[in-house]
Amino acid sequence: MAFKNSLEQYIKKNLKNRVFIVSSNREPYSHTHTANGIKIIEAVGGVHNLLNLIAQVSNGIYVAHGSGDADKEVVDKYNRIKLTTDGKSYTLKRIFLSKKEIDKYYYGFANQTLWPLCHAVFVKPIFDQSWWEMYKIVNRKFTDAILEEIGEKKAFVWLNDYHLALVPQMLRASGKDIKIGTFWHIPWPTYEIFRVNPWGKELLMGLLGNNFLSFHRGYHVQNFLQCVQRELEAKVNFEPSKVTFHDFITKIDSLPAGIDYEEILQIKEKPLTTSKSFLEKEYDIEIPYIAIGVERLDYTKGLIERLKMIDKFLEKYPQFIEKFAYLGVVAPSRQHIPAYRQYSKEFIDLVEKINWKYSTTKWHPIYLINQELQRKKILSFFKDANCGLVTSLDDGMNLVAKEYVLSCQAEKGILVLSKFTGAARDLRYSIHINPYNIDEGAEAIYKAITMPSSEKKSRNLKMREELKDRNIYKWAINFINRTLYD
Ligand code: G6P
């Protein structure tokens, strides 16, 4: 726990006179009605886990959209609830939104305008004036909730992601003494893509209310600076990167997020069900070579391409029939959006087609778990999977890739990784692919499962050194430090 302690100490020392607030759209825990009463559910996914840890360690206030159907019933009159995990507690303050607000702000502007605009995956963003208006209204709601918690005190506010782009400037306009940092977890597009957004200027101005704005990779920083240079009358500095706008300076840099190295090693010691035992238990099959993938069912993740790679691999190397299986954990996501529903349908159709093409009496190549799984369960699945597959067409970071490298057995597993993920730069010794190149992907799967143990081990150990060194707590310290000090 040495890494966690160092963040705790850093915060105690540097933030003692400021209220610590973390905010993101998605709440770390939601409450829901079940037959046995109200149940608390933890959000899954790399980013959520990471923010939850930060809030715990900082003993701060987490401001987020209350999305659970029982959320309202458990909060106090200020919409707060105290959460305690691992003996540490923090306050979750919930913002409640109407269906119309959720539709236009979350499903509309955030996920049908900004999400496809920022990911270079050839899905056209939709520009709808009423979504934009609602995005402003909901950003104002977040701002007001944060200001309510700050009161007359000094504060440190850590904002997360593309749902809250206007909050920094709104907070700044309050005139209070607040240090504001935003971490933008998804890519930032090139100017040629960004310029089609009718409200691009306002978004940039919103983000220039930050003391510090961070992306995962340097190329996203460069893209952002170019957008500012072309759209605003601002002074743009590339080395070191900062923007001066209306006499206010925003520092901009890349800080690639890391993972919780120590926590993962702990889970690895005592895993729950692993991939091999899962397939044995549920399907009564013993598979020598297992590939695994874990993600939300999202068109940016290259899931259709991945299936085509598996198809090509089995076509070229039929000796792996009955010896290879792909275990896909796919969490349904944003299903109210037509593009997601369409993508899910295509995905399921293709799974069915490939399974039918190769199936024998007791085996088929693709096994799906269509639900969100607890983190511990996922990390345990990684342990004996021979190959991790991350095939995103564009991805800000992809923490799952990093988690696989640390969770697998060093001499048994190896990661096949899209070179279009932010993680590719940190995971240099994984097998890199262009996910659009299906043949290359099929060969990569072959290479992964036939790679000698000694080579897997040496590649994994080299990557693990870096994962240890650039762990999540160091990342958080860097982010806070850059936001606090000039
Ligand atoms: C992905 C992105 C995150 C983002 C999250 C939102 O995980 O990488 O940057 O915050 O999606 O997911 P949600 O399920 O809340 O739409």
The CATH class designation of the largest domain is Alpha Beta
User: How far apart are the first and last residues' alpha carbons, in Å?
Assistant: 30 Å
Number of domains: 2
* Uncertain segments: none
Assign the CATH architecture of the largest domain. Answer: 3-Layer(aba) Sandwich
The helicity comes to 40-55%
Side-by-side strand order of the widest sheet: 5-6-4-1-7-8-9-12-11-10
Q: Name the CATH superfamily assignment of the largest domain.
A: Glycogen Phosphorylase B
Calculate the mean pLDDT score and round it: 96
Tell me the quaternary state: single chain
Main beta-sheet annotation: 10 strands, mixed
Looking at the structure, the CATH topology of the largest domain is Rossmann fold
Structural class: alpha/beta
Shape: globular
Q: What's the gyration radius in Å?
A: 23 Å
Q: How many beta strands in the DSSP annotation?
A: 18
Number of DSSP helices? 18
Strand content: 15-25%
Ligands: 6-O-phosphono-alpha-D-glucopyranose
